[in-house]
Design brief:
Elements: H1 2-32, H2 38-63, E1 67-72, E2 75-80, H3 81-92, H4 96-105, H5 120-126, H6 130-138, H7 146-152, H8 157-162, H9 170-182, E3 188-190, E4 199-201, H10 202-213, H11 218-229, H12 244-249, H13 253-256, H14 261-271
Antiparallel strand pairs: 1-2, 3-4
Length: 282
């Protein structure tokens, strides 16, 4: 989003520069020809005046705040563009103090959608910003709310999270997953984008995370436990008709089980075996 902002600023100032240069050239030539070729001089001076008017109107249109509409559960709310711009900048800069102050003054900002149709809660989750997620939850935001799904169609919270491309610490990812489960994120959801069966679950995301990591630690095991306890469908089939257990068994994780107790417990979870807090099978 920052890149888009920079591109917009570059194009805007480029256009302004071209208009200013054209206006100056026309004005100077018009003055030079004033006594010699009056008609041409008038035409050039008129053109410079028109360019100046366009310059002024364009600048004013960009600088003056415009009303923007934010859809909330209670209906549409109008917020000025300078407020949403400041809020968007604060999100990108991880400026939680400003985000806190703005959402206090404008509570509807928790439903603000950025250029990627992400609300602030999902944005902070995708960036693995635990404090940001907690702040938005404190303000009343929830994952997979009706308004978000209305705009994003099939991009449910966990679907978006596991495809965000971010690589946080394992502890952070586990904490984000836990916050998502506790605050509205659906662990089983429609997926018309990434799944051949049009269905998916957060458990697939956790399994692929563990498989790609190559060695299951306590945080990956806890994350799996969290989504299984929340009702993740163990029998759901995803890519190439695999269940989460199939994905695990077809990976190199079987070798990890020989030396890693966490890997053994992880597989038992995928088989539907209850694992107690002490780590024993129930």
């Amino acid at each position: 989003m920052a890149f888009m902002g920079l591109m917009f600023a570059f194009v805007f100032f480029l256009i302004i520069g071209v208009l200013a240069f054209s206006m100056i050239v026309c004005f100077i030539i018009g003055l030079i020809l004033k006594n010699k070729k009056r008609l041409l001089s008038k035409i050039l001076l008129t053109i410079s005046g028109v360019i100046l008017a366009i310059f002024i109107v364009g600048t004013v249109a960009v600088i003056i705040p415009k009303p923007e509409t934010i859809e909330t559960p209670d209906g549409e709310v109008t917020v000025m563009s300078n407020v949403t711009k400041k809020f968007n900048t604060a999100l990108q800069d991880k400026d939680l103090e400003t985000v806190d102050k703005l959402t206090d003054r404008y509570p509807e900002l928790i439903y603000y959608l950025d250029i990627n149709k992400l609300d602030p809660l999902q944005y902070f989750a995708d960036k693995n910003n635990v404090d940001g997620v907690k702040l938005m939850i404190e303000k009343g935001a929830r994952f997979d709310n009706g308004l978000t799904l209305k705009h994003r169609i099939t991009e449910y919270a966990f679907n978006d999270y596991f495809h965000s491309g971010e690589s946080p610490t394992h502890e952070t990812r586990k904490e984000i997953i836990e916050l998502m489960v506790e605050n509205g994120a659906q662990v089983n959801y429609d997926d018309a984008v990434y799944s051949e069966t049009k269905k998916s679950s957060a458990l697939f995301g956790v399994v692929y995370w563990a498989v790609y990591d190559g060695h299951i630690d306590e945080y990956e095991l806890e994350a799996a436990q969290i989504v299984v306890d929340a009702g993740a469908d163990l029998s759901m089939r995803g890519y190439e008709d695999n269940t989460p257990l199939d994905v695990f068994d077809k990976s190199d994780m079987i070798e990890d089980m020989n030396t890693n107790e966490n890997a053994k417990k992880f597989r038992e979870l995928l088989r539907g075996t209850k694992i107690s807090s002490s780590g024993t099978q129930g």
